[in-house]
Amino acid sequence: MTRILTYNILVGGARRIDQIAQMVRAAHPDVVGLVEATNPRVVEELAERLGMEYRMTGSGTHLRDWQIAALSRLPITRTQVHLRPGFLSKPLLEVSVQEEGGRELTLFVAHLAASFAHSARGGDSVRRAEMSEILRIMAEKKGEPHLLMGDFNSLAPGDTFKASRLLRYLVNMDELHHAKSHESVGHPNLDFVVPLSLRFLEPLLRVIPPSGLFSALFDGAASLYVSRGTIRLLRRAGYVDSFRHIHQHAWGFTCPAKAPAGRIDYIFASPELAGRLSSCSVVTEGNTIHGDEASDHLPVLAEFGECVGGDARDSEVSRKLDGERACPLPI
After folding, report:
1. Where along the chain do its domains lie?
2. CATH class of 2-156+227-319
3. Is the pTM of this model over 0.90?
4. Listing from the earlier edge strand, what are the strands of the sheet with 2-8?
5. Fewest 10 Å CB contacts: which of 36, 74, 97, 268?
6. Which of 267, 285, 286, 287 is nearest to 277 (CA)?
């Protein structure tokens, strides 16, 4: 049984290392993919506290120097950092670990561009281009068990989006930014999401959250406006959305942690690995703390076990991306 966790820890997490450690420890993961790991000292301390090895894409030099990290209880056998200037806005981290029993599992950890205010349809075209490049990189692993996880800043086709919750959160962050700017570092605000050409509408946007009717209308309009092509690319390439594969109807919101509005953090399994998927969940608390005390994202945990007749089931999963669970839990 191998437990995989993906977690965006919010601009390095230096002031929240205790809370982050509690969230990770409560999930009992074997491997952790950390997004926004801008502070090497935090990554090193987390690894020490959790008894894990660690690897990073680089050493951040400032808060916005986005880096990726991986922590592993399992032996790390190989690491590669993929830098694609002009194709990827942030590095892609590739790590191979040796599972119990001697099998090798390769994990890719990604952080796709937000670009919500800088491109049409919420920046999905930017992220689609990034995902196309990531798929080209992962093509070398075709036929081998591997997975892709991280913060994709993208909604999946068919997923619910509570845009009015996000809007309320953004308005609150605006107020916090003006009152206590140091406490809002890394958190998005209205200007981060609303395109420059539409910012004249911000006074109107502020009156939507208090109204139930306006909120419902806004949720419907936003769901139609936001493109979902990035996740569609992954699905068409044969990768299995671990959470949606297990939970066909649950929302599974991961962000923002204080007012969950959408699911943008994922663990996608290759067809060869998906046959071993036994569970997947969003981690909302850790021991004595709530998830919003540690980061603005909630982590996602997937568990991969063993299946009898795995090869046949793996082939079935490659044909049925979102069908019944390929490796059902014992009753």
Report:
1. 2-156+227-319, 163-221
2. alpha beta
3. no
4. 53-56, 68-72, 31-35, 2-8, 300-304, 277-282
5. 74
6. 267
